[in-house]
Design a protein that fits this description.
Structural class: mainly beta
Strand order of the largest sheet: 1-2
Largest sheet: 2 strands, antiparallel
Number of strands: 4
Strand content: 5-15%
Amino acid sequence: MSNAKPLVKCSVSNCHYWGEQNLCRAEEIIIEIDKHTGSGFKEEYAEEMTNHNHHDHASTSSATCCLTFKPGV
């Protein structure tokens, strides 16, 4: 398995991790299904999602959202 970081594009320019040419600079990307968006996770990274065996199923890309977002300063 390769340890290379995948290229992640994002157009949300007010995110702390947003970089030139719409490149995401975050070390970790957390993506969740939309039905959890109102769940009130404690932090932008939603670390509680990565610490257990949490699995969901999305039928389309439009049913997902990025939880890595952190407002820029």
